[in-house]
Amino acid sequence: RAGIRSVGTSSLRSIVGQFEYDQIIGDRNRINKEWLLVVGNSIEHWGVQTMKAEIQSFGPLDASVAKTLEKQMDAERDRRQQE
After folding, report:
1. Residue 32: exposed, middle, or buried by beta-carbon count in 10 A (0-12, 13-18, 19+)?
2. How far apart are CA 56 and CA 17, in angstroms?
3. First to last CA, the chain
4. Residues in Cβ contact with 69 at an 8 Å cutoff, skipping those fewer than 6 apart
5. What are the Cα distances from residue 74, in Å, to 22, 60, 80?
6. Measured distance CA(59)–CA(28) in Å, rounded
7. How many whole angstroms separate alpha carbon 55 and alpha carbon 25?
8. What is the distance, to the nearest Å, from the Cα of residue 21 to the centroid of all Cα atoms in its chain?
9. CB 60 within 8 A of CB 72
10. How far apart are CA 30 and CA 83, in angstroms?
11. Is the pLDDT of residue 18 over 80?
């Protein structure tokens, strides 16, 4: 059980690291699908079949990190509008 949790946690970090913060918030379905594939393939050899993997909520635990991410998202949105 601990091995499955470890695989799930590390694979989720790897997948989430490929996305911008606003993509993570806006496209959890895509992340869920990728996560299901990675986790499923990783633990299948243990005899465990993964039927569903889902991020139900996402956000930083620290308020200062949340403020910094909000500022970065606002700046990125402003940059996109100016293009």
Report:
1. middle
2. 17
3. 48
4. 21, 60
5. 10, 16, 10
6. 12
7. 10
8. 9
9. no
10. 26
11. yes
Rounded to the nearest 5 degrees, what angle is found at the Cα of 53, between the Cα atoms of 48 and 57?
145
- Which whole number is the average pLDDT over 52-79? 81
* CB 72, CB 21: distance < 8 Å: yes
Can you give 14-47 as a three-state secondary structure string? Answer: HHHCCCCHHHHHHCHHHHHHHHHHHHHHHHHHHC
Residue type, 6: S
Residue 21: pLDDT over 80 = no
At 26, phi and psi to the nearest 5? Answer: -85, -20
- Cα–Cα separations (whole angstroms), residue 49 to 18, 41, 42, 65, 72: 25, 9, 10, 36, 39
Q: What is the pTM for the complete model shown? A: 0.55
Paired tokens of 70: 């909000």
